[in-house]
Amino acid sequence: MAFRKRLILPVLGVAAVIAAGFGSLGHRHPEDSSIVLYGNVDIREVELAFRQSGRLVTAMVEEGDTVRTGQLLAELDAQPFRDAVAAAEASARQAAAELEKLRRGYRAQEIGEAEQSVRQAEAAYEFAVGEVKRQSATVTTGATTRSGYDQARSLRDQAAARLAAAKETLAMKQEGYRREDIAVAEARLAGADAALAQARTALADTRLEAPAQAVVLTRSREPGSMVNANVPVYSLSLRDPAYVRAYVGERLLGEVVPGSAVTLRSDSSDKVYQGRVGFVSPRAEFTPKSVETAELRTDLVYRLRIVVSDADDGLRQGMPVTVYLQHKPGGR
In the predicted model, is pLDDT for residue 83 greater than 70? Predict the structure, then answer.
């Protein structure tokens, strides 16, 4: 009799485990024919870090605090970044001034000076031409030597060249700077503006703000610490949205449709939560290893993501919940 009792107890234990495993994949409620699934709360987390390196000067919230969207959480020492912005602003102003100078062209005084140079060169050329004529008239009589005549002609040619150069200089100043020079200045200004924008972005990155309403999970750094870029300072648990991850067997898959309304209950309270099926995986998976029976491990199931529409502090990461999906006539 004692041997029979010892045999019955292990058999009952195995039967209970198998029943629990099948329950995790879904079954019909005997009273209202709703589909019952079991899942776990899945609340997304985010790790916040600075994009710049620097010295942490303020950390304003503690673990467990609730933060709102855009709330300032921590700051780096911003003085080095303000100095970089000031230097970039000066470079941008210099580039803008150089471009404006090229676009305006030469000043009226510079053009007037070039015009005076042309008139001076014209006068010198006319004098040299007249000198050549006088030397030409007297060279045949012997009053002027041949070398004196050749020198007069050379001076005339030099005066003509200076006149041509003066006219070219005047035309250049009247036309203004080359288009290529202006294009180079425009590119230089664009580069200076980009550097300024980058410096301002770096300055803004000295402030760490909450991306959404959340609860602070961890505070990893304290004021005075040197913080490297991309090293987490805070970890947050997002308040919204909250999901439930569950699995359904192939036999009930046709009745679990994205958009279907569901109700949820946790073991920790009597509150009923509302939600909808947001995602049904198109890929089959083996039953999760939390189901410890050899028979069920080889069964294929499909992962569900259920969006909870009225989540509150009663739902916490990893908490087991029961999901009720009303059976619709016509399902399998």
Answer: yes
pLDDT of residue 190: 96
Cβ atoms < 10 Å from Cβ of 310: 12
* CA 286 to each of CA 39, 88, 159, 303: distance values in angstroms, whole numbers, following the listed order: 16, 58, 99, 10
Q: How far apart are CA 209 and CA 202, in angstroms?
A: 14
**How many C-beta atoms surround the C-beta of residue 67 within 10 A?**
21
CATH of domain 24-43+240-325: 2.40.30.170
Reference 306, options 246, 239, 240; nearest CA is 246
* Annotated domain spans of the chain: 24-43+240-325, 84-200
- Which strands form 207-209's sheet, in the order they lie side by side? 207-209, 72-76, 54-59, 226-227
pTM, entire model: 0.65
Predicted local distance difference test score (pLDDT) of residue 291: 46
Closest CA to 61 of 204, 231, 219: 219
Cα(305)–Cα(42) distance, rounded to whole angstroms?
A: 9
Q: What is the band of 228 on the pLDDT scale with cuts at 50, 70, 90? A: very high
Q: How confident is the model at residue 268 (pLDDT cuts 50, 70, 90)?
A: confident
Please name which of 57, 315, 286, 95 lies closest in space to residue 187, comparing C-alpha atoms.
95
